Write a sequence for this structure.
């Protein structure tokens, strides 16, 4: 009796996952994206303003057969370059002047990048379930210290980007197909637009893309489009 | 498609059975990882961590201290010296670690507790071995292979479960636990290798062999005193301190007869650390584990320079633990501190607080007055003034 119900439960479970597996593991190009945009302040953009793209924090890794995520240096370098180029062309397409702050080695600038990573994760948590003080109150800020980026890079807004992207190895894909379970590979991240006069986060977008990509030009452009979708500039 | 899956599964079995090359041996001098493979990923991550360390607010940038620490590690590393970069972090926890890309991090909490250069060298020798023997890479490979095996085992158990009609989840989670134990056991073996090779490297330069076990004897004493200390043997990444004492005693007995001019370089070590000890003593106390601090300062206050400072630390730790017999021990330690030329004026404040707590107004008044005479512009002047007004 117990045997029967166990197998039945298993089969039902597998049936559902099978659909997902067939749709998403085998057939490439299937994308499930969810964007959470939070805008707080009106932006009065004028043509003489500039955006600084702050050293994007990007990591691409490969999930092994056993599910261990191994950072891939080659994919990461390429993915990071693609993201930067795509963001630059996205901004150019909108007629926005931009400058890139690369390989930040200054102590105070580096602290702002670390702070944004922590802040971005807090905002991410809050989008799912807001803290009482943050309900209808999007007042996240990096603080007035952000002005150092304005002064050094002669920019009015800072665009911070954080992306983590993972891919299944062939063996893991095969395992997923065989057991009809998800591979666990995902793409997640966030982008924030910061007013460098006061450090206020004026726009934030969370990227949660189950089958995104950053390994080739086409999927990277798609990812950047999702990431910057709705940016009020 | 079916053939591709079959090939992939064969590949998985091969990977899980240890198809990834094992045991890379010692790195060649001047080695740098290229952009492909799992090692490149580890290097990229650790390069990123190193960049973050370089901009860390708690990075100790004092040139003299850095020159001293780099000098010690460079002598130990020999031909690998150019590949190793050492960073001192102002962090009170007793720790040091080496990254696969050649970054070595030393916490000030460790510098406070080392008795001499020889002890410090044994810690560095251990860390250099982690780098030279590519332990991080081997451990990652072990994780990958073990996780693969656990997956194959889980599949097999699922099959068995269906065949015999039983829920396999218990058997599967047992396999996952065994996998974790297996990885921890591997990590402990790497630590033993780092101890053993590090010991040989450090003693070959003439550092006193007995100092290696002394580090771990001190650690055992601290752990014994700490009621919060516990360890799960199977999941421990390091061998027990007791085992490390035992191993180092054995190796020292073998090494000792080979020469008679063993060095500890105690004076050089203390000269390099002296300017920072005051700060590090405060930071150790700020960890709020007086049981451990008492053991540390009691040891440091024996036959070491800067005794006034260590006795003061001991007094503070006893006073903060605040258990029945501690008041007397704290007072004794403060008095011992004040008998030393390097006694911090705050030892008087400690005596005043103890006396105030005991209701001995005259004694407290006297101690606080002494404190204010020695340190008229102390940051807690207003607080002490208030105490004095209440006495």
């Amino acid at each position: 009796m117990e045997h029967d119900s166990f197998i039945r439960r298993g089969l039902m479970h597998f049936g559902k996952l099978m659909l997902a597996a067939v749709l998403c593991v085998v057939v490439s190009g299937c994308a499930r994206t969810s964007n959470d945009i939070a805008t707080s302040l009106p932006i009065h953009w004028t043509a003489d303003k500039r955006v600084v793209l702050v050293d994007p924090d990007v990591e691409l890794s490969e999930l092994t057969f056993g599910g261990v995520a191994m950072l891939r240096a080659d994919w990461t370098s390429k993915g990071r370059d693609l993201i930067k180029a795509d963001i630059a062309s996205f901004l150019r397409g909108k007629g926005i002047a931009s400058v890139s702050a690369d390989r930040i080695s200054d102590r105070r600038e580096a602290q702002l990048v670390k702070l944004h990573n922590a802040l971005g994760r807090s905002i991410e948590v809050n989008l799912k379930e807001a803290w009482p003080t943050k309900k209808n109150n999007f007042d996240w800020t990096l603080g007035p210290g952000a002005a150092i980026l304005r002064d050094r890079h002669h920019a009015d807004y800072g665009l911070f980007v954080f992306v983590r992207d993972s891919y299944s190895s062939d063996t893991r894909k095969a395992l997923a197909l065989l057991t009809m379970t998800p591979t666990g590979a995902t793409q997640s991240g966030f982008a924030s637009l910061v007013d460098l006069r006061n450090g206020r986060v004026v726009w934030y977008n969370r990227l949660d893309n189950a089958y995104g990509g950053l390994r080739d030009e086409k999927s990277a452009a798609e990812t950047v489009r999702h990431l910057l979708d709705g940016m009020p500039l | 498609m079916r053939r591709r899956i079959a090939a992939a599964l064969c590949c998985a079995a091969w990977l899980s059975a240890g198809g990834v090359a094992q045991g890379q041996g010692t790195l060649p001098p001047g080695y740098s990882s290229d952009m492909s493979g799992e090692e490149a990923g580890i290097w990229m991550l650790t390069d990123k961590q190193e960049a973050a360390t370089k901009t860390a607010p708690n990075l100790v940038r004092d040139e003299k201290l850095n020159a001293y620490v780099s000098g010690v590690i460079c002598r130990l590393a020999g031909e690998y010296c150019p590949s190793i970069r050492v960073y001192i972090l102002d962090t009170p926890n007793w720790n040091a670690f080496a990254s696969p890309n050649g970054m070595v991090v030393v916490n000030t909490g460790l510098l406070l507790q080392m008795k001499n250069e020889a002890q410090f060298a044994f810690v560095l020798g251990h860390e250099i071995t982690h780098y030279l023997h590519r332990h991080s890479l081997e451990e990652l490979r072990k994780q990958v292979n073990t996780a693969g095996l656990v997956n194959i085992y889980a599949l097999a158990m699922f099959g068995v479960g269906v065949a015999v009609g039983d829920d396999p989840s218990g058997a599967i989670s047992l396999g996952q636990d065994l996998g974790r134990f297996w990885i921890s056991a591997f990590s402990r073996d790497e630590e033993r290798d780092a101890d053993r090779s590090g010991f040989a490297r450090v003693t070959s330069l003439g550092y006193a062999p007995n100092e290696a076990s002394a580090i771990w004897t001190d650690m055992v004493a601290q752990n014994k005193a700490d009621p919060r200390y516990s360890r799960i043997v199977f999941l421990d990444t390091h061998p027990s301190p007791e085992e490390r004492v035992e191993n180092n005693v054995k190796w020292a007995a073998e090494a000792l007869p080979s020469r008679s001019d063993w060095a500890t370089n105690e004076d050089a070590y203390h000269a390099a650390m002296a300017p920072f000890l005051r700060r590090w003593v405060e930071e150790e106390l700020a960890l709020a584990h007086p049981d451990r601090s008492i053991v540390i300062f009691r040891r440091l206050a024996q036959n070491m320079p800067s005794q006034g400072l260590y006795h003061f630390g001991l007094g503070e730790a006893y006073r903060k633990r605040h258990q029945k017999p501690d008041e007397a021990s704290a007072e004794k330690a403060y008095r011992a501190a004040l008998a030393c030329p390097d006694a911090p004026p705050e030892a008087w404040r400690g005596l005043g607080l103890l006396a105030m707590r005991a209701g001995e107004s005259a004694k407290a008044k006297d101690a606080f007055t002494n404190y204010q005479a020695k340190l008229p512009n102390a940051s807690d002047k207003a607080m002490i003034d208030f105490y004095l007004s209440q006495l």
Q: What stands out?
A: Strands of chain A lie at 33-39, 50-63, 69-71, 97-101, 157-168, 187-195, 201-209. The first strand of chain A starts at residue 33 and ends at 39. Confidence is low (pLDDT under 50) at residues 1-32 of chain A. The two ends of chain A are 63 Å apart (CA to CA).
